[in-house]
Amino acid sequence: MTKWGELWEKSLRDISVEAALKCLDDAGVDKVDSITVGTMSGGLFNAQEHLGSLVADYLGQRFVPATRVESACASGGLAVKNAYMEVASGLSQYALAVGVEKMTDVDGGDATFALATASDYDYEAFHGITFPGLYALMAVAHMKKYGTSLEQLAQVSVKNHHNGSLNPHAQFPCAVTLDQVMTSTMVADPMRLLHCSPITDGSAAVLLVPLTVAKKMNKPYAVITGIGHASDTIALCQRKDFAKLEVVEVAAQRALKMAGKTIRDIDFAEVHDCFSIAEIIVMEALGVVESGQGGPATVNGLTALDGDFPINPSGGLKSKGHPVGATGVAQVVEAVIQLRGQAGPRQIKNARTALTQNMGGSGASSIIHILEAR
Ligand code: COA
After folding, report:
1. Of 45, 67, 99, 268, which sits most exposed with the smallest number of CB within 10 A?
2. What is the mean pLDDT of residues 8-12?
């Protein structure tokens, strides 16, 4: 992946190609059979659509079949899934998945509008609600139903900023205190600035090949053994319970079934903490803890780097950043780095099995991958 942040000196095509070249260098490959690009909104952020061809062209892969996929903030996860299907179907031997978003070419208001188009435009965005607002509603519901406290929510950000401080690619690689989170600027009550993922430019890429080919490449690799993909109502207000993410429950069941595992077999997870409340609800939906126990478990250190179930060793969306289309690919990148034992100071001991959970909108789509070390 590229360094993430405000990359004003680089263009959308620059960062896509940079991540893709780093990935191909790492794999020792210079020609691919297909390219899948995950992006949420090149049109609204950069006035550039047709990203499959743009990336193939500037990557020097003319005539290679290139597909752009979109599932809002889960576009990156979808790109990995599409590359997996390219390989599984036999259409491609070398299938490249690139995730990219360059969000700082527009101002904050326009970025917020572009993001809001991933909600139900007629029934949500049109009336003025934003993603911080939607997740704030989920936080209030969770607090009311389970007694989740502001301190527990803030601890998610403290943990993820600690992890991100160990990640050279992170946009905000700085530790923060509980007090700093709890007194940061209010964005959408109770979500403050330090509960929110930022606006980010960045790209990430992974190469998928059949296992037989991976074995011959003489490079460290990880194996995708499970994929779960689900969708739910696009509007939050259509769901029975705002304190739940059923889309994650369903996607997780599918991925675990395919891998022949239970959540107890997973050593760590990269999850979609676009807001602190999201990490808490997602860990409950995955079955890491019972519903309502996500907040206390976070405070008790279950999900810390040295906890029994580390979550977001990369720093997560909160600290590493959230260039929306790139996030799902970067989650897989972190899983692979950890499974190869190459994560340096944020390395999780004995990491053999990883889960990545990528989410679109307020939980209208989710894609989960399970990866295992070899
Ligand atoms: N975490 C930590 N620091 C942040 C930050 C974040 N999420 N966002 C901005 N900052 C920092 C900036 O670097 C800046 O610091 P500086 O003054 O030292 O330079 C300061 O806070 C203010 O930044 P600014 O860009 O003016 O913030 P903003 O008010 O325009 O935007 C948010 C802040 C939270 C509204 C914006 O990041 C946001 O909308 N996040 C959510 C994105 C989202 O919805 N994604 C989709 C999820 S489903």
Report:
1. 67
2. 97
